[in-house]
Request: fold
Amino acid sequence: MATSPKAKSTKPDSADLDRLVAALDEAVKGLSSDPLALSPGEVRKARVRLEATARSLSAAAEKLDSTRRPASIFDPSNPALIGRFIALTMIAQDRVALESIDRFYGAGVYAIYYTGSFGQYRPIAKSEHPIYVGKADPKVDTATSAVEQGTKLWDRLNEHRKNIAKAENLDIAHFECRFLVVASGWQKAAEDYLIGLFRPIWNSEVGLVFGIGKHGDAAETRVNKRSPWDTLHPGRTWAANTTADQKPLSNIRVELTQHFAELKPYKSLQDIFARFMAEMHQLPTISSSGDTGEP
Reply:
């Protein structure tokens, strides 16, 4: 009885790899010497595809190396890393009532937390997930002490306190905050990390209930539409005099529901610290076998 031929292996060999590399070399030379006749939009799409392919090739090359590579080199001078440590230090501070902060010197970063029963905010109420994070820049960029920085951090928190107190459906007693006075120039890096970590719903970068920091002008000269924050939390006089919303109230509620369905709020400090520790790993997995990889 005749035997069926064995199926040809699909595993690439060195000849396949040589042909692939040669074809890629030719393609790259062609792009360099004779750019494609593409529209600006097509160029962007092509660039995205090429960059994705480059990442795939880089990952494939790494797999051929039996010695593991760290995801990054730890650089203590990296502004993003310093911002992360500043943010973590701020999170380690005690929470205090927003309505009763004594005036103090300093600029830096802060986070505001909600503890009430407003329906749309239940997923983050009484949790360690802030509703808003922000920064306060020093009075002068060259300030080297808290006194030279002025009372900028307290001023910002006090401004938020006043705006929240004007809202008809919010109680200022249901808000707490954390804050940290930071050396001048580092507050922005910390704020960026905090926004990326928490995606707070009141931050404009997240695109949901933004507008708490918005200032009004005279009704007869105002041309801006009412912010989502003012639509959801009426009470500021100048916003009431504005006739149009940036977002209908129904849309805001739907977007918040979708946001919290996708985002798992941090319920405890342990959850936040665990995330921070995971981000600091250079090697995703560490062998416990004691194998050093040496022959």
In short: Strands lie at 96-97, 108-114, 132-136, 175-181. The two ends are 48 Å apart (CA to CA).
